[in-house]
Amino acid sequence: MNAIRARWSATFSLALAISMLAICSQAEATGQGTAPAPAKLGRGINILGYDGIWEGGRNAPFRLDNLTAIRKAGFSHVRINFFGFKFMGPGNLLDEVVLRRLDAVIEEVLARNLIPVLDEHDTHVCQQDVSGCAEKLKAFWRQIAERYAGRYPALVFEVLNEPGGQMTSAAWNTLLNECLGIIRATNPTRTVIAAILNVDEMPVEELVLPSDDRNLIVTFHYYAPLRFTHQGAPWSETFSRVGPLDWGTPEDERKARADFEKMRIWSEREKRPIYLGEFGVYEAAPAEARTRYLSFMARHAERLSWAWAYWQFDHDFAAFNSARQSWKPEILRALIPARR
Q1: Of 46, 200, 217, 270, which shows the fewest CB atoms inside 10 Å?
Q2: Rounded to two decimals, what is the model's pTM?
């Protein structure tokens, strides 16, 4: 009897495993898999923040088939930088035409077996007009959460890019938790990304999250030191005159490790996963120093088991040459070393 029971149990277990594998394979093929565990975000890249696709342009400079190149290069997710506020009409209602374009982008991302992160990117408004931001941000997430409730389980929400400026930690905690309440009303298990306040001190210990919500990822951005990463940037009166500056001394690396260590200690204590949502170096930096910096940040984040996303695919800080439709090889190698 024990032998028969054992054979039956083994047969049942095998059948169950095959059945679950088939279900998972079908979900992956359709892009409708379950929401990813935070670590599964892996390596990513920021896309579409400053592109005409939202206004109905011809994907210039971004082309939707660039998503295939992103996947083939070894990235596993894309962070979609979406300026939702400018597509709001009376009553803070989002333009349905633009939302359908967003649907199409998400579906194209999923079709390439990439994870889409939808990042509300209206930093400039939220850092300057806290009350106006709060009204619009809550309206944004109420509409987005209702639209995607029960759809695209792999889609990840990011509440707001780089809260800071005139927004204090207390104000951000209040707004963040209000937005989380709105999202959870219709998306109780959706993976959601919440940022720490984007100031030099990286005050992660001031972030207040609902203790019973474990489907959260905490994000921060890293561009330190700004004089190096933004040297030669023409939009800044200060940084446009800076450079050439090098990076990569033992002291440079020690400072970056110390900043990352602060995040690691908090993460382990609070049992919250970390996402390095942006890092990058402007093109005017010396080439070797630029790639040295990028490689150090990406590898160090990976050693800490953090997901990361490079800033950005095209435009400035670009990893990809849109005119030639090819990767900048030195940048790609720094981010994703060649497989051996």
Answers
A1: 200
A2: 0.88
- Separation CA 103–CA 114 (nearest Å): 15
Three-state DSSP at 91 gives: helix
Record the tokens describing residue 29, joined without a space.
């093929």
Residue 167's identity, in one-letter code, is M
Tokens of 332: 């790609």
Give me the DSSP letters along 180-234. HHHHHHH-TT--EEEEPP-STT--GGG----TT--SEEEEEE---SHHHHTTT-T
Question: pLDDT tens-digit profile of 2-16?
Answer: 343 333 344 334 443
Residues 53 and 59: beta-carbon distance below 8 Å: yes
Dihedral over Cα of 172, 189, 186, 143: its sign: positive
> pLDDT (tens digit, 9 = 90+) per residue, 272-329?
999 999 999 999 999 999 999 999 999 999 999 999 999 999 999 999 999 999 999 9
Residue for token pair 């630029």: 290
